[in-house]
Amino acid sequence: MVKVSVTNLAGQTRMIEAEEGLSLMENIRNNDFDDLAAICGGCCSCCTCHVYVGGDKYADLPAMEDDEQYLLEDSDHYRDGSSRLSCQIEVDGSMDGLAVTIAPEA
Ligand code: FES
């Protein structure tokens, strides 16, 4: 299991035990964070799984594909160097200690 800190829209933070091989979005949803709507189910077409990645872990994440980048840059809440779509990140052991904050919906 991979420990990930998740902060919801109300600013409440909870540590979850994320399952490797599932997306970060699935892990956040499986831990009852309803603020993350993820309405397209992980098809990279809705931007409602947007999170901000804290600290220096952002640079270590797998690179973004173009479609993720385009969706994020269309969001009013996009932050360069922090924003990611959590459905596009498959959790692995290197992500232990990751801290993410759920972004407001676009
Ligand atoms: S769940 Fe829709 S883009 Fe991630």
Based on the structure, what is the oligomeric state of the protein chains? single chain
Output the CATH topology. Ubiquitin-like (UB roll)
Q: Please trace the helix and strand order, writing H or E for each element.
A: EEHEHEE
Main sheet attributes: strand count, strand direction, barrel closure: 5 strands, mixed
Any ligands, ions or cofactors bound here, and which? FE2/S2 (inorganic) cluster
Overall tally of structural domains: 1
Q: Ranges with pLDDT <50 over ≥5 residues? A: none
Report the sheet-strand fraction. 15-25%
Q: What gap, in angstroms, lies between the N and C termini?
A: 31 Å
Q: Kindly provide the name of the CATH class.
A: Alpha Beta
Return Rg in Å.
12 Å
The number of helices is 2
CATH architecture: Roll
Shape: globular
The whole-number mean of residue pLDDT values reads 96
- The chain-level structural class is alpha+beta
